[in-house]
Design brief:
Blueprint (H helix, E strand, L loop, with lengths): L7 H10 L3 E5 L3 H10 L3 E4 L3 H4 L11 H14 L4 E5 L9 H15 L3 E5 L5 H9 L4 E6 L18 H17 L3 E5 L3 H10 L4 E4 L7 E4 L1 H4 L17 H18 L15 H12 L1
The structure holds 3-methyl-2-oxobutanoic acid.
């Protein structure tokens, strides 16, 4: 039976019923297929693709065009899953108009169901402009990698009462602006749990503890494909780097020793054609 695609009202109902929402990043067609087959609720085509796919050392260089291409692939791989496009640095910082224009590109060109953008109070007018275009918006607060320079690096936020107040105020402002969901990254559960209980919209966590309404992880961390570093909040469920490296070592050994390919990997000539080929070969000898 075809999977039923969940929408925002389903996520609100899940929150109300205490049913946790599952969210994962994906950047390509096959992984999106796996995620949909596994029954994931939401997919984020994160700008983390800069590090996980392109090998940049941050998300900063990621462009709108790259995001669109990866969203298109994920959309094709997971047609019945709620897909979120992530607005890269430079796509919404300059003006409300540009933010709305780029958000519309995600919907028109890649067919995503929502967009996510980083920032709290300071991006409220951007959120409103995108909502005015009829697009579902997910806020992202706490550790916001695109502005890591301003928040002291890739560090957990809200660990002091004063810093927690800023996170809480950002969360309240985002709900007030009309965003349909909120993601909190790397914030203590004492803070994120309070926010999740306070807000009516679903509050998702990446590194913000179990008291939120659902969890997000980066697929490349979860399956052990991204090995440069692993944040504290990651739980690894597979070791793809090891599996793939070992498979490639076996392949290299087999090719070098002649163990691959064997007869079973070959296409043989159609019956009766081999004799004719011998005549053809004679012409060239
Ligand atoms: O790009 C991404 O994957 C993200 C997560 C780190 C939240 O924004």
């Amino acid at each position: 039976m075809e999977k039923k695609k969940l929408m925002v009202h389903d996520f609100v109902r899940m929150k109300q019923e205490g049913q946790k929402i599952t969210w994962i990043t994906s950047y390509d067609y096959p992984t999106a297929q796996f995620a949909e087959a596994a029954g994931i609720d939401m997919i984020l085509v994160g700008d983390s693709l800069g590090m996980c796919v392109y090998g940049y050392d941050s998300t900063v260089p990621v462009t709108m065009d790259q995001c669109i291409v990866h969203c298109e692939a994920v959309r094709r791989g997971a047609p019945n899953t709620f897909v979120v496009g992530d607005m890269p640095l430079g796509s919404y910082q300059v003006s409300d108009e540009e933010a709305a224009r780029n958000a519309i590109r995600f919907i028109k060109e890649a067919g995503v169901d929502a967009i996510k953008l980083e920032g709290g109070k300071r991006v409220i007018s951007r959120i409103e402009a995108i909502l005015d275009s009829g697009i579902v918006v997910i806020g992202h607060i706490g550790l916001t990698p695109q502005s890591s320079g301003q928040i002291g690096g890739h560090k957990a936020q809200g660990r002091t009462a004063e810093s927690a107040r800023l996170v809480i105020e950002d969360a309240l402002a985002i709900e007030e602006a009309g965003a349909q969901m909120l993601l909190i990254e790397a914030v203590p559960p004492e803070v994120s749990g309070f926010i999740a209980r306070k807000l009516k919209i679903p509050v998702l966590s990446i590194g913000a503890g179990a008291d939120c309404d659902g969890q997000l992880l980066i697929i490349s961390d979860l399956i052990g494909q991204f090995t440069a570093f692993t944040p504290k909040f990651v739980k690894r469920y597979a070791n793809v780097a090891e599996v793939v490296t070992n498979a490639l070592k076996e392949y290299i050994k087999d090719v070098q020793s002649g163990a691959f390919p064997t007869d079973e990997h070959c296409y043989h000539m159609i019956k009766g054609e081999e004799e004719k080929l011998r005549e053809v070969i004679k012409e060239y000898e």
